Each structure stands twice: as structure tokens, then as C-alpha cells.
Amino acid sequence: MLSYLLVRLILNKLSKSQIITIGLSGGSLVDLHASMLPRLRLPWARLKFFFVDQRFVPFTSDDSTYGNYQSKLFRQLPLTENNIIKIDANLEIVEEYAKDYQNKLQEALNGEDKACFIFI
């Protein structure tokens, strides 16, 4: 039922916007999304993903939301790096990291596509 509602929501939003930007939470939701999303028939090229609770850790850390989604979900989907809004792992100062990520999210929100945001 949840996956049906998600598909309806995304397709409805895509009828009004070229791109849908989806905020993903970490923790136990990574496994839920990894089991559900690959089964959905969606226009993946028109979806972008970002992380609502990414920590200032390397992508290889178990605490990295991006790292967990990369290893458990994104490899199962027909996505490219253009579909994923992530932090710059080369930045070493947390303030630079936060500012860089903020700029990327603002660019996605204010881009000419006028992306619609959904949080799951």
C-alpha cells in the first residue's frame, strides 16, 4: 500500500514538474527503501535524491546515510551521479561541508526545473 501511494504521489508531482527531488532519511529507513523502491516503475531519470540527515563522516562509515543508500539501494536502480545530491567528501571543515551542501540543495530547489521536494 505504501509503495502504491508513493508511486501515485511521484507521478502526480511529475505531471507538474520536470524533476522531483526526494529527501531520504537514514537509519532503519534505508533497508525499507532498499526493499521497496527497486520494485517500483518510475521514471528514474527525472528523480533526484538528497539526504536529510547526512553526517560529517566518510562515505565508507556505517554512519554515512549516503554510503548506506549507495550500497543498499542506488546500485539496484538505473541512476547516475546526476540523480544524487551529496556532500563533497573532500571537504575537511564541517562548516564548509554544510555550506556546500546547502548551496547544492538551494540550486536544486531554485533551478530552472523548479523541482518539487518530497521527503520519505
Question: What would your notes on this structure say?
Answer:
This is Glucosamine/galactosamine-6-phosphate isomerase domain-containing protein. Pfam families: Glucosamine_iso. It comes from Rotaria magnacalcarata. InterPro entries: 6PGL (IPR039104), Glc/Gal-6P_isomerase (IPR006148), NagB/RpiA_transferase-like (IPR037171). With about 120 residues, the protein is α/β, with parallel strands linked by helices. The protein has a single domain, classed as 3-Layer(aba) Sandwich (Rossmann fold), CATH 3.40.50.1360. About 40% of the residues lie in helices and about 10% in strands. The chain is built from 4 helices and 3 strands. It has a 3-stranded parallel sheet with strand order 2-1-3. The two termini are about 15 Å apart.
Describe the secondary structure blueprint for this structure.
Layout: H1 2-14, E1 20-24, H2 29-36, E2 47-51, H3 65-72, H4 94-110, E3 116-119
Parallel strand pairs: 1-2, 1-3
InterPro entries: 6PGL (IPR039104), Glc/Gal-6P_isomerase (IPR006148), NagB/RpiA_transferase-like (IPR037171)
Pfam families: Glucosamine_iso (PF01182)
Domain Glucosamine/galactosamine-6-phosphate isomerase: 6-110
